Each structure stands twice: as C-alpha cells, then as structure tokens.
Design the sequence.
C-alpha cells in the first residue's frame, strides 16, 4: 500500500527566510502524481503545487518549489521569502496515475512564520 | 466557478441522532471524495465516487456510515446513529478524475457529537 510520511510535525521560519518541508512516500508504481496542500486556520484546503512523476524537472509556483527525487521517493517543498500568510498546516499527498485514484495524505507539518 | 459547496459548516448533535452532510461538487467534475480529518488520524479517505458510482468505500468506518451520489451534482454522507467518536471535520472534494487533476476541497463540515 502507498504511504506518505512527513517527518516534521512542526517547523518555524523567520519572515523573508527560506524553509524546506520534507516528504517521503512509498509506492511500487511508476506513474503517479504528488501534491502539496496548504491548510490555514480557516481549514480550507488549498493546492500549492503539483508534480508529475514522469517529469524530471522540479515544479515551481512563484515562491514555492519542490525538490523531487524519484529514486529516493522524496518530495520536499521549499518556500522562499516566507510571508506571515504562509503560516499553516502543509500536507504532502500522493495520487496513483490511474484515472480513478484518490489522494493519500501525510500527517502534515505545522509551519509558523515569525515576524 | 463556485467551488465545492458543503453544508452545513458546523453541526452539533447528540449521540444517537442521525446526521446528514451534503456536498455539491464543481460542475463538470466526475470524481467525488469524502475525507475525515481528526488530530489523531489526520486526513482519511472515507469513500470516493467516479461518475456517481462508488469506487472505494473501504475507508467507511462501519455500517453506521453511508454515502450516496444520486446525480453528478449532489452527494450525501450520513451517520446513523452518531457517536462522540465521530466528531471531526468532514471534507468533500471533487476532481476531473484524471491523475494530474488536483482535488478541489470544500470548506468542510465540523461535526460535534455530544
């Protein structure tokens, strides 16, 4: 069975600095997708970034980028120039490449941003 | 695009009562998911539908839980009878049903069973 592990329950970063959130996953599939979701205190789940496993190039969305290491089954999220609004729970998620796959989530990392 | 709409936003009920949570997916999305979020267990998939057909309900805790999707624009999750351990945030999400299509989540229903 596929699993997603986020080993950092909590992280803290100074405003304007850079922080990296870790995620590892376990799968025997070769075709899959990876996502990072953000959940602020409002509890809304917001998509931050996604990565297709068949693409070697790391995905980037403005201040958010990933370091995707397929062989190591690692998918870390880097947040540059951290802002107070980045404070939230961050969830890493895996989705099988088949058309009917559901998302499997990690336990999450709570990110605090210090002014 | 109104997004995924869930109702109610909050629900407080007494143990033994029936609870019905509702979800309207994004128009055109053909996959719908129900998740439960608790501090202890994180986000757990309860059930998901593809083209209104239940595909995987292995996450449904027990017979007290049931879900339906009578048409492409509406789904319900029912708990009968409810128990205090059912207290959680329940999310509905929808997607286009292909691998790289992200799930779009509703704002969730916070259920409290006393």
Sequence:
């Amino acid at each position: 069975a596929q699993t997603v592990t986020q080993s950092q329950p909590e992280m803290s970063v100074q405003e304007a600095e850079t922080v990296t959130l870790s995620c590892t996953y376990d799968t025997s599939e070769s075709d899959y997708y990876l996502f990072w979701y953000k959940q602020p205190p409002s509890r809304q789940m917001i998509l931050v970034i996604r990565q297709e496993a068949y693409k070697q190039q790391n995905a980037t969305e403005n201040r958010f980028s990933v370091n995707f290491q397929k062989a190591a089954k690692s998918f870390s999220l880097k947040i540059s120039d951290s802002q107070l609004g980045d404070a939230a729970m961050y969830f890493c998620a895996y989705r099988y490449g088949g058309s009917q796959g559901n998302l499997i989530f990690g336990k999450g990392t709570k990110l605090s941003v210090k002014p | 695009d109104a997004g995924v709409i869930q109702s109610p936003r909050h629900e407080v009920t007494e143990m033994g009562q029936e609870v019905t949570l509702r979800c309207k997916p994004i128009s055109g999305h053909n996959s719908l998911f129900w998740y439960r979020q608790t501090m202890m267990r994180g986000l757990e998939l309860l059930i998901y539908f593809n083209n209104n057909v239940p595909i995987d309900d292995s996450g449904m805790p027990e017979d007290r839980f049931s879900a339906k999707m009578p048409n492409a624009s509406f789904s319900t999750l029912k708990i009968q009878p409810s128990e205090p351990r059912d207290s959680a945030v329940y999310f509905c999400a929808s997607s286009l049903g292909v691998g790289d299509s992200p799930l779009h989540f509703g704002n969730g229903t916070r259920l409290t069973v006393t």
Observations:
- Chain A touches chain B at residues 31-33, 35, 42-45, 47, 50, 52, 91, 95-108 (CB under 8 Å).
- The first strand of chain A starts at residue 3 and ends at 5.
- Residues 37 and 48 of chain A are 5 Å apart (CA to CA).
